[in-house]
Design goal:
Strand content: 35-45%
Number of helices: 6
Order of helices and strands: HEHHEEEEEEHEEHEEEHEE
Shape: globular
Distance between the termini: 18 Å
């Protein structure tokens, strides 16, 4: 699963992002490497590496992030660090849910989020196919992940007799390489150097992605109401659900204005028509 899916399954619904640093190979004493001198030194080195990586640096310095959860694990020869950033802008009275072909959500905003009118509330829907198992060989050849493909955007209802001129809008789509395209029997790294080489190949592949243009359907909500601090949305998304009949993960992004700038204020994944892995228990 992607990080934002795991976050939703543990009860999270704020905007969020993840950084990770560490090798896909577990070094052993027999490999001939010097032992780690201290955890602090390993943290300093990991942070230096994260700060020279543009994507990781953006996560660390993103002013929209308000909180961070940090995970550290190490032994004499190995060190892993993970950072999970999140905002703190939404409290839901009703979490996003898909029922009977409709999506609905309602809540309040805080910490500087503002809505001038209903056009300032943006709702985007992304789709990922049902998660499936990956082997270590596939994971070790993966560098990045994306939000899936955007399949809809919601807009406010109009007064009787009025209609929107457009049914879709163009958008650039730049998907990360799919780890499932790597053969499942691809062997995992057999050394630290090989793990680094596989990482470099995956990194290079991610940088050689070609942008493509997709057309995102507009869905006119039956209800899209906002006030200074609250919002309530209901929309029929049956056409989207019919397109992906086998089910999957629908991730709902909610946008608002923070200090006059557009920003994602909530991100929540719905496992629709499929059962989430039992590693996590939804709350």
């Amino acid at each position: 699963m992607k990080p934002y899916m795991r976050y939703s399954l543990t009860g999270g619904y704020q905007s969020n992002g993840e950084n990770g640093s560490g090798s896909d190979y577990c070094i052993k004493a027999s490999d001939g490497y010097a032992a780690n001198k201290s955890a602090k030194r390993e943290i300093d080195q990991a942070m230096a590496g994260l700060l020279i990586s543009p994507g990781h640096r953006r996560n660390i310095l993103n002013k929209v992030h308000r909180k961070v959860n940090i995970g550290l694990a190490w032994d004499s020869y190995n060190f892993q660090i993970y950072q999970h950033f999140k905002g703190d802008y939404v409290e839901y009275d009703k979490l996003p849910v898909i029922e009977n072909g409709r999506i609905s959500l309602e809540g309040i905003v805080k910490n500087g989020v503002e809505f001038g009118d209903e056009r300032d509330l943006g709702i985007q829907i992304y789709y990922d196919p049902p998660p499936s198992e990956l082997t270590r060989g596939q994971v070790s050849r993966t560098y990045c992940y994306d939000l899936g493909i955007q399949v809809a955007a919601l807009r406010p209802p109009l007064k009787r007799g009025w209609r929107y001129p457009q049914t879709a809008y163009p958008k650039t789509y730049n998907p990360c390489p799919d780890p499932h395209d790597v053969p499942a029997d691809a062997p995992p790294a057999q050394s630290h150097d090989e793990a680094h080489d596989l990482w470099q190949e995956a990194y290079d592949a991610s940088k050689s992605r070609k942008e493509q243009t997709i057309f995102v359907p507009w869905i006119t909500a039956s209800k899209l109401e906002v006030s200074d601090e609250s919002f309530s949305v209901t929309a029929n998304i049956n056409d989207v659900l019919k397109k992906y009949r086998r089910g999957g993960v629908y991730t709902i992004l909610v946008w608002g204005d923070i200090d006059g700038e557009r920003a994602v204020i909530s991100e929540y994944s719905i496992f629709h028509g499929i059962t989430p892995p039992d590693t996590y228990t939804p709350r």
